[in-house]
Design brief:
InterPro entries: AAA_16, P-loop_NTPase. By secondary structure, this protein is of the alpha/beta class. It is built from 15 helices and seven strands. The protein is globular.
């Protein structure tokens, strides 16, 4: 695993979380980052560190295709632990309210029974739940995780949630709940500095680029780790040792790598983000949000949210 660069604060917080959990003082932490900022590497690192503490590690990686499936994220986390009786808790979504209005009531009694499943497991050792791309989690799973977060005090259970900033969507139940609890730390990952870019590429390539070539790569990617992954692959495919890559070669490699990788990163956001970025690239310069919104055929409010995603990503 390539060492995480410029993520000392995040690793410090994760270590503190594990220390609290092992001591029986459960807590939660949320990590926010734009697409490609490397937040996915943190759950993997947290899992490795938790296992060294002899903790039970439960992981889920949410995706848009399962966002409408009730209990999808919870099933990823707990399926292997649930008895046949416990699985019955997940067989249905919320029940209709008794007045026949058709609205759906949250199954709080099921929330608590699932919480008790974790408590039983924690008697055998600390438990750490890691949820990546939590903004894609289904509503019931988000609400259960929020329920869990409010009941961690005094139990050896920890919760680490990674989500994406500037998706152009409203906050989900889980993000809202964690934001309302000031005792839970919130981490925001930023793009890498120029030195961080050089160190990251050196780690991936096994050799350092010349400083001028590394500076070109930083300028082309904004220090976004996801784009740097694509650049490292392009450099490796040339067969040229990294120290011999000239700035001109680096510029060409970066252009091609970014053209391949950027649409994939943008597509992880809401459609408004992709539309906004496309218009910005096409126009070259945008004088105001109304023009941007009109050209992208989206609401001004959506454009205002969406434009922050490329900015956050560097």
């Amino acid at each position: 695993m390539t060492p995480l660069v410029e993520r000392a604060r995040a690793l410090q917080v994760l270590n503190a979380l594990l220390g609290h959990v092992v001591a029986g003082a459960g807590t939660a932490v949320s990590v926010e980052a734009p697409a490609g900022a490397g937040k996915g590497a943190l759950p993997a690192e947290a899992a490795a560190r938790a296992r060294r503490h002899k903790a039970h590690v439960l992981r889920a990686r949410c995706c848009p295709h399962e966002a409408a499936e009730p209990w999808g994220a919870v099933r990823q986390l707990l399926d292997a632990l649930l008895s046949e009786e416990d699985r019955g808790l997940l067989d249905a979504g919320p029940a209709p309210l008794p007045d026949g209005s058709g609205d759906r009531a949250l199954p709080v009694e099921r929330f608590h029974d699932l919480y008790l499943v974790l408590l039983r497991l924690s008697r055998r050792g600390p438990v750490v739940l890691l949820v990546d791309d939590a903004h894609h989690a289904d509503d019931l799973s988000q609400r259960w995780l929020a329920y869990l977060a409010r009941r961690l005090e005094g139990v050896p259970i920890g919760l680490a949630v990674a989500g994406r900033t500037a998706t152009g969507a409203a906050r989900g139940a889980l993000e809202t709940a964690l934001a309302a609890c000031p005792e839970f730390p919130r981490l925001s990952l930023r793009p890498l500095s120029e030195q961080g870019t050089a160190d990251t590429l050196a780690g991936k390539l096994g050799q350092a680029l010349e400083p001028d070539s590394a500076a070109v790569c930083h300028a082309a990617t904004g220090g976004n780790p996801g784009l740097l992954d694509a650049v490292a692959v392009s450099v490796a495919r040339t067969g040229t040792p990294a120290p011999r890559i000239t700035p001109d070669q680096a510029a060409g490699l970066c252009d091609r790598a970014v053209l391949r990788a950027l649409p994939l990163l943008l597509n992880r956001h809401a459609p408004a983000v992709t539309a906004t970025a496309t218009v910005v690239i096409a126009l070259g310069q945008v004088t105001g949000l109304p023009l941007l919104a009109a050209t992208a055929r989206i609401a001004v409010s959506d454009a205002e949210q969406a434009v922050t995603a490329p900015e956050d990503a560097g």
